[in-house]
Amino acid sequence: IRTDAPLHTLFKGGHAERQVLDQLAPLAIFAPIASSWAAGDGKVSEATLRHETGLPPALVRATVDTLLRRGHLTLAGRGSGNARLLLPSRALDKITLADILASLNAPSREEPGSPLGELRRSHADALSVILGERTALDLVDLETHTKLTEQIKALHLSEDEAQLDEAFAAE
Questions:
Q1: What are phi and psi of 83, to 5 degrees?
Q2: Which residues pair with residue 85 across a beta bridge?
Q3: Contact between residue 49 and residue 56 where contact means Cβ atoms under 8 Å apart
Q4: pTM of the model
Q5: What pLDDT digit, counting tens, does each position of 142-161 carry?
Q6: 171: Cβ–Cβ under 8 A, 6 or more apart, which residues?
C-alpha cells in the first residue's frame, strides 16, 4: 500500500478546516483499498486504513460501515484480532468518486442561508465539478491522484480562512 498517497495530506489543519475536510474522508479511506486491489495485494484491514489515513478510529469504522452498506466495499473475511478485511465491491473503473462521497455525505443539516450551510453547499458544488466522472481507478494512478489532490487543495485554499472560522463560529 502506498503511504505517500497525496489525498492523505489533506487531513492536516485546524478544527474548522478539519470538519470540512472530514467530508473527504471516504476518498482517503477508499484510496488504500483501491491501491491494494490494483497492485494485486488484496484485502485491506480497518487497522491499516486507520494507520494509512491517520483518521480517528470511529470515523474510519463509520465510513467503512456505510461503504459496505452502500455497496462500494465487500467484506472479504476477518484478519488477526477479528479485524474486517475489505475489498472493492466491483471494478474500480465502475465506482465513481462522486458516488462514494454522495453515499456518505448526507444533505446539510444547517438552516438554509446559514453561513456554515452556504459554505458547505458551495464546497460540495465545487467538489462535484472537480470530481466529475473520475473513478476509484483514478485513486490508484499516482499522477492523476496527485493532480486531483492539488485541485482539492486549491479549492480549500481559495476559501478565505476567515470565512471558514466565521462560519463555524456562527453555528
A1: -65, 140
A2: 45
A3: no
A4: 0.72
A5: 787 778 777 776 766 555 45
A6: 110, 114, 115, 116
